[in-house]
Amino acid sequence: MITNLRQMADTVRSSGIKKRIAVAWAQDPNTIGSLHRAVKEGFAEAIMIGRHEQILATCKETGADPQCFTLVESPDEKSAAELAVSLTRDSEADVAMKGLVGTDKFLRAVMDREKGLLPPKTVMSYACAVEIPAYHKLLFITDTAVIPFPDLDQKVAMARYAVEMARRFGIEKPRVALIGASEKVSDHFPNTLDYQEMCRMAERGQIPDCIMDGPVDLFLACDPESVRIKGVDTPLAGDADILLFPSLESCNPFYKGLMLFGGGELAGMICGTSKPVVLMSRSESELSKYYCVALACLMASQKT
Amino acid sequence: MITNLRQMADTVRSSGIKKRIAVAWAQDPNTIGSLHRAVKEGFAEAIMIGRHEQILATCKETGADPQCFTLVESPDEKSAAELAVSLTRDSEADVAMKGLVGTDKFLRAVMDREKGLLPPKTVMSYACAVEIPAYHKLLFITDTAVIPFPDLDQKVAMARYAVEMARRFGIEKPRVALIGASEKVSDHFPNTLDYQEMCRMAERGQIPDCIMDGPVDLFLACDPESVRIKGVDTPLAGDADILLFPSLESCNPFYKGLMLFGGGELAGMICGTSKPVVLMSRSESELSKYYCVALACLMASQKT
């Protein structure tokens, strides 16, 4: 079982995995730095799409060896995004990654019905593995970035994707906490009605390979002492692996709070696409981008 | 300016404030311990409502001197809650506090139209001051506990209460961050439309004494480095005092994350009532309850 991100990257590095990453508009320093490291460590090949001149200039600036990369010339952001996606779709690459291109443009290419990476009627979501010094293992969190107010079907898909990710980290039966403000099911909180239905689905095996409970608050999900004091009988036992949130407005500040005030570090990716898609904010660190690349390579590798 | 909770309690202690707290169903050890300390330190008098026998037994158990308290016999939770509220309403006490009574029963007494503490048509909300080692000052957060999905009027009231609280900590013009998943106003996130309106109201002086901006994500609110990288021109400048959240499902896991993973400590209270009301979870620590009592005494004292 992988319990931190360093160990995740080491696992990828030592497992003989080697995946090809197609990067859209690849000229920013953090993207180049993270991919340079992944290529040097042997688990990635990088196809850097953008303006040769700019990419070479950034390589010089950051001390990255441009010989590590395959450079593909592209005139603008939109073309770069479309090319990264089509290379991945045509299996010239295993992973599509956003560089300096705007999120909207990049996602439009990913979601294109004809030429994109999203199978019809598939829910697209986002899950990440967060490492926090104050927790004894990784916390998988969803959805930090994509679905504003997930309905029942979307929540089910979110849970499945996160379970699949956690299992690739060696957690055979991850504990999924459906997060609310308390453990009470109530009409005043429609999400808790979805949660109730999801727990039934998990019991019936419709959401397989996990132990699910909710609604629970964060304390019942992650703090055994609170479980004891409140006397709530939950199979999560304060030892959750996965936290599923009721909305983007709920999940996004939560994970950012962990980053800013809990010393957190993360690796995340788009879920639901036919191939892994790496999408990060421009302001993410080189280390975070490196972890995302490693995670995408892990998820792109043959399922065990 | 008060920048941590220890300093807040010290300020109350050294200011000559002395307030009377009426505690409903007062027999649990944390409640008795926290009030014992507040009474010993001279800023509170405590009217402990409940079964004498049980209160005396807990005093013995915890080493608290029962002579510090005024004991008032009450046969059950409901009567105890009603009595704590009516004593406060009739100015026999300055603060009403929940002991071991259930939250629902306690709030019913507080919200009673005839005998309660909530003026007609007043929004009731909850605000707390959170101390986190990784932030350079207190963060005031609302609403962690009461309003599930606040509408515009409720959000405005939440902002006003939090501003009033922050100003009592010596922050003359607190910076209010209206928290979303990003800085974009969008129909897909109806709360961001309320935020837009609130910023206009703040500019017009309808929400006075504050610097307000939103929607912003947590990074723009609390991290100057993110403000610089993203190039967003916000008067918050990554130095927010107050975080207003779009829903209870958003605020509740956020503050619990700070407690559990960020080493946080808090003091909170009900806002909107005619007198301060202290309401905490049974599982809160003695120190948290002590800070809540100190906060209520501060807020009950003459406005400066």
- Which whole number gives the mean pLDDT of chain A? 95
Biggest interface, chains and residue tallies: A-B, 41 and 41 residues
Largest sheet of chain A: 6 strands, mixed
Q: The CATH topology of the largest domain in chain A is what?
A: Rossmann fold
Topology, number of strands of chain A: 11
Relative helix content of chain A: 40-55%
End-to-end CA span of chain A: 14 Å
Report on the structure:
2 copies of one chain form a homodimer. Chain A is of the alpha/beta class and 304 residues long. Chain A has 2 domains: 5-121 and 273-300, Rossmann fold (3-Layer(aba) Sandwich), CATH 3.40.50.10950; 126-261, 3-Layer(aba) Sandwich (Isopropylmalate Dehydrogenase), CATH 3.40.718.10. In chain A, 42% of the residues lie in helices and 18% in strands. The first copy, chain A, contains 11 helices and 11 strands. A 6-stranded mixed beta sheet of chain A has the order 8-7-9-6-5-10, sandwiched between helices. Chain A has a 5-stranded parallel beta sheet with strand order 3-2-1-4-11, sandwiched between helices. The longest helix of chain A has 17 residues, at 152-168. The mean pLDDT of chain A is 95. The interface between A and B is large, with 41 and 41 residues.
